[in-house]
Amino acid sequence: KNEVEQSPQNLTAQEGEFITINCSYSVGISALHWLQQHPGGGIVSLFMLSSGKKKHGRLIATINIQEKHSSLHITASHPRDSAVYICAAAFNSGGSNYKLTFGKGTLLTVNP
Amino acid sequence: GAVVSQHPSRVICKSGTSVKIECRSLDFQATTMFWYRQFPKQSLMLMATSNEGSKATYEQGVEKDKFLINHASLTLSTLTVTSAHPEDSSFYICSATEGPGAYEQYFGPGTRLTVT
Fold it and tell me: What is the distance in angstroms between the Cα of B15 and the nearest Cα belonging to chain A?
């Protein structure tokens, strides 16, 4: 069964702190997404990665295929980073099709 | 980057009526579109996968006669919630990929449906 586990479920930080959100998945995947969802619901895709590490501004995403684990890091966190962060694993669903299985999300609150 | 739009962003309808939600890829051709539903404080759940020009594939437990999906062109998919009931109130999100075998999904902003 394709399962995606995220931790922590809730995270409160002070502005400027380094943030880490973790994601583990149960079986082999083709790619892993990190998504951001603000209040109001709209989803923004932050990263898609299948190996190694990616960086965009203050955000860094890493993935370890052998350990079936990915992390999202936020450096110098800011109140505007407050959102729900979701990891989603792309599993092959047959042929050339892929489906995403989502973690439950991590609610990040960054206080000024 | 690839942009996906949804319309409407919010809709309130009466119980028993039908509601259509549109999902458009604005600057790319979307061979495959996905429809998700998200209840409050829960994760997104895939409802169905729709490939242009063919019938949608529904996930287990999703009623295909209640949630009608049409993907008639490479830039437009529609989800119609028929005979809506209050329990259908949810946040509906679509996503699209550019081609078969593409991992990256581009998400729409979502549609909040409230059935009274």
Answer: 23
